[in-house]
Write a structure and sequence with these properties.
four-stranded antiparallel sheet; three-stranded antiparallel sheet; 22 helices; 12 strands
Length: 483
C-alpha cells in the first residue's frame, strides 16, 4: 500500500474532526454577539449523578474575563473549535501549534478580509485573558472523576503581522512567518488522554445560528450513550447552551424552536410535535425531549444533485457532501465512489471503523487507488461482458498480494464454471436484493458499462461467490438461487 493511502487509512481511524468533551458539556462563551461592558463573569451550574462516587454532584463552571478584551462570545467559541482542528492535524503531538490566520479563516469558512483577520487576533487575545474555574465539573479521564481545575485555555499566543512575517522569512527560521498558540497543560493533557469526541465539523459550520451550533455540540456528545434524551428545560437552555437566565419558560421555548427546527431539517434530530418536545411536569416546571434521527440522510430530497445524494447515501452528511461536490472534480468523486462501493460490497476491513470517514478522506486527500483494486478493474475492463476473466492472467504475482491473488482465482474459477444463462439469472437476483444505492449505480450505469457499473457488478458477484465457497446461505442468496 502506498504511503499516502496508508496515511489516509490511519487518519480515518481517528476521524478528521474532534471536539474536547469538557468543552462540549458546558458553554465556554455567551451566545450573544456582544455583552455589557461591565459584565466580566459567566456561571453555569447543573447537578448530575456521579457514578464514580455513587452520589449526586453539583457541577459549576465560572468564566472570568480581562477588563480590556472582555468575555468570549459565540464567535470566540468557534475559534477555539478551529484551533482544536489545527492541533488534530498534528495528531495532538505538541502543545505549541503553528498556523496562519488565513489557514484558520479557511478552516472556519470565514471570508478572507481584514476585518476577520483582526477578529482572529482579538479572539486569541481574549482567550489569553479568560480564566476558567471548573468546580467538580472538569472530567479527568486519568482519575475517572469530576475534579476541580482552574486555567486559561491558551498559555501563549504569537500573531505575526506582514512586516514580522517578512523579517522571519529572511532569517529563515523553522515555521518562518507563521503565528502560533500554546495550549494550557490541563487542556492538552485532556487531548492526549483521548478525552475527545468525533464531530462533523462541516455539518457544524453549515448551521446558521449560534444556538443551533451549541445545541448540536452538546446533544451530539450526549447521544453517544442513548438515542433519546430529556432535560430540565431551564438547565438545558441556560446552563448547557448559555441562554439568558432571565428568560421565562415561554421565552426559552421561543428562542429554542428555530434552532431545533434547523437541526430537524438537517436530519440531526427527529421531528417531534410541540407536545412531545416540551413536557409540562407541574406549574413552572418543564422538560425538553430530543430523539436522535436514525439517519441524517432523512433531510435528502430528490432534487438534490446526483453526486451530493450519492455521497450522503454512503453516510457523509449533507453539508459535507455539498462541500465536496463544490470543490472536487466529478471524475475524482465518481472514481472514489466506485472504489468505496467495491470495498463495501466485499466488507473490506479497511473501511470497518469509519466507512463515511474513509470515503471523505479518499476524496479530500486525493490518495491513489490501491493495487488490488486497480488490478481488479484492469482485468474486468479486458474481460467479455458476461464473463469474469481470472485476474492472474493479467497481473503478475509480484504485483498482487498472495491472499488477494488466491481469492481472485477461486472466485473467477467458480463464476466461470457457471453457464452463461445461469449467470444472467443469478446476476438479476443479486441486483434485486442489493442495497438501493448499489442497485441505482448498477441500473444507471448498465448502458455505458463504465467503471462504476463494472465495479458494482463485480462486487456483487464477488460477494455471492465468496458466500457459496464458504457454504454460507443468506436469505438474499436463497432468493437469488430461486429467482
Amino acid at each position: 500500500m502506498n504511503t499516502a493511502l496508508k496515511a489516509s487509512f490511519e487518519s480515518t481511524k481517528r476521524e478528521i474532526y474532534r471536539d474536547e468533551l469538557n468543552f462540549a458539556e458546558f458553554p465556554l462563551a455567551s451566545l450573544s454577539t456582544s455583552l455589557p461592558k461591565d459584565q466580566k463573569t459567566l456561571e453555569f451550574t447543573d447537578e448530575i449523578f456521579d457514578k464514580s462516587k455513587n452520589q449526586k454532584v453539583t457541577r459549576k463552571l465560572t468564566i472570568t474575563a480581562s477588563d480590556k478584551y472582555g468575555l468570549p462570545t459565540a464567535m470566540d467559541d468557534e475559534v477555539i473549535l478551529g484551533l482544536i482542528q489545527l492541533t488534530g492535524k498534528t495528531d495532538f503531538a505538541e502543545r505549541k501549534v503553528f498556523f496562519t490566520r488565513y489557514e484558520l479563516l479557511k478552516l472556519l469558512n470565514w471570508s478572507d478580509d481584514t476585518r476577520n483577520y483582526d477578529r482572529i487576533e482579538q479572539s486569541l487575545n481574549r482567550w489569553l485573558g479568560v480564566t476558567l474555574y471548573y468546580d467538580k465539573s472538569w472530567w479527568s479521564k486519568e482519575e475517572q472523576s469530576w475534579v476541580n481545575e482552574g486555567f486559561h485555555i491558551l498559555d501563549h499566543v504569537t500573531v505575526f503581522d506582514k512586516e514580522r512575517q517578512i523579517r522571519r522569512a529572511k532569517v529563515g527560521e523553522g515555521n518562518a512567518g507563521k503565528s502560533s498558540f500554546v495550549w494550557n497543560e490541563v487542556v492538552f493533557n485532556s487531548f492526549q488522554s483521548g478525552h475527545l469526541k468525533r464531530i462533523d465539523f462541516e455539518f457544524y459550520k453549515a448551521l446558521k445560528s449560534a444556538v443551533s451550533k451549541r445545541m448540536y455540540r452538546f446533544l451530539d456528545k450526549r447521544f453517544y450513550m442513548r438515542a433519546s434524551l430529556e432535560f430540565d428545560l431551564k438547565t438545558f437552555a441556560c446552563e448547557h447552551l448559555g441562554l439568558s437566565k432571565n428568560y421565562h419558560n415561554g421565552e426559552l421555548k421561543r428562542v429554542l424552536r428555530p434552532a431545533i427546527l434547523e437541526l430537524e431539517n438537517q436530519g440531526f434530530l427527529k421531528k417531534l410535535p410541540d407536545g412531545d418536545r416540551f413536557l409540562s411536569l407541574s406549574r413552572g416546571e418543564w422538560k425538553i425531549a430530543f430523539v436522535k434521527s436514525s439517519d441524517q440522510r432523512i433531510a435528502l430530497k430528490e432534487e438534490l444533485p446526483e453526486l451530493v445524494k450519492a455521497l450522503a447515501d454512503r453516510g457523509i452528511t449533507l453539508a459535507s457532501a455539498r462541500t465536496i461536490v463544490s470543490k472536487t472534480e466529478e471524475a475524482e468523486i465518481r472514481e472514489k465512489l466506485a472504489f468505496f462501493d467495491w470495498l463495501s460490497a466485499k466488507k473490506d476491513p479497511r473501511i470497518k471503523d469509519s466507512p463515511a470517514g474513509f470515503l471523505y478522506n479518499s476524496i479530500t486527500n486525493k490518495f491513489n487507488l490501491p493495487d488490488d483494486y486497480k488490478a481488479t478493474n484492469s482485468a474486468r475492463a479486458k474481460s467479455p461482458e458476461r464473463k469474469v476473466v481470472p485476474i492472474t492472467q493479467k497481473v503478475g504475482p509480484s504485483k498482487l498480494d498472495p491472499k488477494v491473488k488466491s481469492d481472485r482465482e477461486n472466485i473467477d474459477k467458480y463464476w466461470n464454471s457457471i453457464p452463461t444463462g445461469e449467470q444472467d439469472q443469478i446476476e438479476e437476483g443479486l441486483v434485486k436484493s442489493a442495497p438501493n444505492f448499489l442497485k441505482e449505480q448498477y441500473v444507471n450505469g448498465k448502458k455505458e458499462k463504465g467503471i462504476l457499473f463494472q465495479t458494482v457488478r463485480q462486487a456483487m458477484i464477488d460477494q455471492y461467490v465468496r458466500a457459496k465457497l464458504a457454504g454460507v446461505g443468506t436469505s438474499e442468496q436463497i432468493s437469488v438461487d430461486n429467482s
